Amino acid sequence: MHTVLDPSLVDEEGLTEQAQDKTAPRGMLFFHAKDGQPLSTPWQVATARSMMLSQCDLAQGLIVDCACGSGLQLAAHASVLGRPAVGIELSPQRAQASAKNLHIVARQQKAEQKRWFRESRILSGDGTDASGALAALEMDSENAVALLHLDPARPRNSRTHGLDEMQPRLDAVFSAWAPYFADHPRGPGLLLDLSPRLTSTQRDEVEGLVDSVWPNIERTWVWTSRGRGRVDRLALWLGAASSKNTARRFVRIPPKLGDRPLILSTSGKNDGDSALPKQLIHPPKRGEYVSILDAALLESGLVGAWLEEVSKESMKRWASVEGRRPQLHHEHPLRLGDERNALLVQATGRVVELIREPLSDETIDGLVNIALEHNMKSLTLRLNLDPADQPKWQGSLDRQLSRRHGERDGFVTQHPNGDVLLLCVCHSDS
Questions:
Q1: Does residue 219 sit in the same domain as residue 119?
Q2: Which of the listed residues 232, 265, 298 is the one where a domain comes to its end?
Q3: Contacts of residue 275, Cβ cutoff 8 Å, sequence gap at least 6
């Protein structure tokens, strides 16, 4: 059974968690059911995704999110695409929050009288019961769905996020909704919002489930990053939602609200291997350049094509390819040009000192002295440290260097071959 909620009529009684989304316009306070806020899609990410979706030639029909949670992605799809949307959520309280959030977005955009809001509905019930959901809406189910969005729940304490941990299960959703998609020459439109922790083998498993229902449907894998040294989102766009001749796409969400994301894409279905670059460790040396790149860019398999655009040498000296700080060594500085390219670089600079003492309470003052010898005004620690030590040592560096009159910015990273620390002057100052 499904309970139908009209977003224009739902009140907030019983909803106790409301918070400002830091990526949304001021005053957009969204409701969340218990523990729902950490799981919700940031508004900036949701709208960026919907803007990309608006470039797709979707069939006529509903936008359906069959596990909509707090409903922020659903609200973004409905408002950006200007289409009625249906969200389904098993938790009654979370369904209520989703309905309220849809109304909040419509009110903020002065769109309460627009069709996309007036005809949108939230259902409290099972997202795998497609026939029951459409019957509850009292609508003709034939060719009803233009796009199905699925962001299944995953255990927060899991390190693997395997397919059997997803709720609802992909295969159950596919079989339930397959009969109700609108006809489209490129196949039904689906957007699967999956765990960023999926391995390449697990991605193959997902594709196998897809092919068992829609053999050879066009597909685009999309890696999304907010620049914090990890993949924030991994999604599979299928059929009408996929990009023609594009197997993989990388999206970097900018830190400044309102700026356009940086989007990199492949061309063709078999244009390269998505595996990480090969690690090639060599002894570090003064004068070479070190760049710490966006980890999600490496995961997407698009780092090689990007490096060809921003460098004039063959980039193969990867000291580290895994973890949050992929480290690349090279002879010449990167030619970033477009400031958006800089978003893909955590740090880049020239090595000016090799330090063979590990960081400690006893050696941090010595590091300050070395930084001053190189006329540095700031020094950022970019290496794995004990969480108790990192803020203490970074604070010491900030305090001591701020009292002096240096002119250059720099960073410290660690070479994976031994305990050698690399003191680098940032690229623009080198």
A1: yes
A2: 265
A3: 200, 301
